[in-house]
Design the sequence.
């Protein structure tokens, strides 16, 4: 039945009916926008540092296909911006006479997991001082291989992070860090050499050569540390552990990983490799028959 005939049967003026229909569609659109707005707010509560591109990727994972221009419009309309945190610095003491090593990754194309691990240290402020966090991150998958937190900034902090990484992962081809004393000390260097790991270090005074580790610290600080006030060492440790193991590894999307969390990204890589191995074995079996 045509729209004209429906209006005649209902004794409605066509212009009034068109107006009501337009108003109804407008209300529906507004209602959908508010639903999306609420979902964006939920995402930004969990990940305050997300901009509209990553918010769009997260929404697609949660509710399906959605246009990024629409998300940009809604975020601009309701003032939903990513939260920009404070600047911070790493703790690096490079005033020492220990041997230093050349930068092996300056022009290196990283193509797989466990090819290059990056190591660095930062601090967390507590009411009565600081605690120090050392991490080792896979430069390809962005997954944290090992980490340690301590009240003391010494070589035991970095060696604990390294030992934890090597206890649960294959050794990398290259270990990259700054020229800090904690990474140049004999205990740390000897452990790398015994495992056959090549040692690489950023040029002095150039933290951007370890930018992937710096990027992780920014993520940690903007999405966890700056949002909380830790009353004790134990509280800081528990919260950081939860962020690394649950939020960062399993939930937080990375644009460099095709908007996947590190653990999901690695699982896809390993699955693809296993499928290739199985295919090669089948091909080999058929050839030998």
Sequence:
């Amino acid at each position: 039945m045509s729209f004209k005939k429906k209006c005649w049967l209902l004794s409605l003026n066509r212009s009034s009916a068109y107006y009501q229909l337009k108003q109804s569609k407008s209300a529906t659109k507004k209602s959908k926008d508010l639903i999306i707005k609420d979902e964006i707010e939920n995402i930004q509560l969990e990940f305050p540092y997300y901009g509209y591109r990553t918010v769009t990727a997260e929404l697609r994972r949660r509710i399906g296909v959605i246009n990024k221009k629409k998300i940009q419009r809604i975020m601009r309309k309701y003032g939903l911006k990513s939260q920009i945190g404070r600047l911070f610095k790493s703790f690096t003491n490079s005033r020492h006479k220990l041997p230093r090593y050349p930068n092996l990754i300056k022009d290196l194309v990283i193509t797989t997991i466990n090819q290059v691990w990056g190591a660095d240290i930062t601090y967390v402020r507590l009411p009565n001082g600081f605690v120090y966090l050392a991490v080792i991150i896979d430069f390809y998958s962005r997954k944290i291989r090992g980490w340690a937190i301590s009240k003391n900034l010494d070589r035991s902090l970095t060696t604990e992070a390294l030992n934890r990484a090597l206890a649960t992962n294959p050794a990398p081809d290259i270990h990259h860090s700054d020229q800090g004393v904690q990474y140049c000390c004999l205990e740390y260097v000897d452990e790398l050499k015994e495992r056959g790991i090549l040692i690489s270090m950023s040029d002095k005074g150039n933290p951007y050569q370890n930018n992937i580790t710096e990027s992780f610290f920014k993520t940690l600080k903007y999405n966890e540390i700056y949002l909380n006030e830790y009353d004790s060492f134990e509280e800081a440790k528990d919260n950081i552990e939860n962020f690394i193991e649950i939020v960062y590894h399993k939930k937080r999307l990375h644009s460099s990983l095709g908007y996947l969390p590190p653990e999901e990204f690695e699982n896809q890589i390993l699955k693809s490799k296993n499928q290739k191995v199985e295919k090669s074995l089948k091909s080999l079996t058929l050839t030998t028959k």
Notes: The chain has ten helices and five strands. The two ends are 69 Å apart (CA to CA).
